[in-house]
Amino acid sequence: MTLRQEVAPSGPGSADADQAVVDLEGVTKSFGAVQAVRGVSLRVSPGQVYGVLGPNGAGKTTLLRVLVGLVRADAGTVRVLGRPPADPVALRRVGALIESPAFVPHLSGRVNLRVLARARGLPDAEVVRVLGVVDMEKAADRRVSGYSLGMRQRLGVAAALLGDPSLLILDEPTNGLDPDGMAAMRALIRDLGGRATVLLSSHMLGEIQQVCDRVVVIDKGAVVAEDSVSALLDRAGARNVTVWAKPMDVAEKVLQGSALWSGATRAGGADDPHWRLELDEDGVPALVRALVEAGVEVHEVRRERRSLEQVFFTLTGDHTGGSGK
Ligand SMILES: Nc1ncnc2c1ncn2[C@@H]1O[C@H](COP(=O)(O)OP(=O)(O)OP(=O)(O)O)[C@@H](O)[C@H]1O
What we know:
Blueprint: E1 2-3, E2 22-31, E3 34-44, E4 49-53, H1 60-67, E5 75-80, H2 88-91, E6 94-97, H3 109-119, H4 124-133, H5 149-161, E7 167-171, H6 179-193, E8 197-202, H7 205-211, E9 214-219, E10 222-228, H8 229-233, E11 239-246, H9 248-256, E12 261-267, E13 274-279, H10 284-293, E14 297-304, H11 308-316
Parallel strand pairs: 4-8, 4-9, 6-7, 7-8
Antiparallel strand pairs: 1-6, 2-3, 2-5, 9-10, 11-13, 11-14, 12-13
The site of adenosine-5'-triphosphate has 12 residues, from strand 3 and helix 1.
């Protein structure tokens, strides 16, 4: 579904540098007995590509629907471009792609966009512009019924871009796409991040890691973390550490005989023997000290950043190690 209204080039509803583009405080929404969103607070600053990450059913779509006024929050405050949700002044500067985009299948992509543009008083040149942004000029005159899912999604993004919105809201924009389609959509989103504030939802950790500056992780409707992607990746906790040290047998005794680290396993074969273990964030000095005190030469200690996936599973308590669903 695409949601767009007319464009207001400036004035009320446009975000200045300090004003949050999206500002939520204690937002709650239930459907009967289901608490879809529980006390969510977050701020999206101008120019950010902001991710809403959570497994299926976490409440992502409901949160995005609240922002565009499709769903009314039960409690809390919602401000989009400084205005209440569904305020026409703010909505003019919001482009949204929530759920599957609906187009007339027997019409071309270009004609579909023209219909949407004209309904909002936008010139045909705006259609040409957005087709260019999503790199769909070549396919623009083919019927939408013959489009791949990826092309439909790109056309959906093009529709959301009509009128050059300040805020672009994309609900699971790569859902159902093949790997090429996903890569193209991610590249497009990164590119769009230079033009507008982008708020996108995903249950795909790698996607958020690749595309977003900042992320809120929600689980069962509630925020479990809200941070920059890099800070989230830097979160304290067990980290994978690789150790190169000699002599091997002495090092092995030290590495396998302490409660300060865990999972010390030998790796690398005869030509490059080393150990891999899990260690607390600040545990490296103790590790090196223990080795040196035992007469071991420490050649290298390498810490690996945890993937966002590992952080996510820790935060949400999802240890299926699977899809994050
Ligand atoms: N209109 C509705 N009526 C009843 N329950 C709803 C409605 N919309 C959402 N829910 C419920 O609210 C919860 C959150 O759903 P929501 O679609 O927001 O999650 P999501 O994180 O977007 O999930 P997905 O990734 O599967 O789309 C789910 O339990 C869902 O069944």
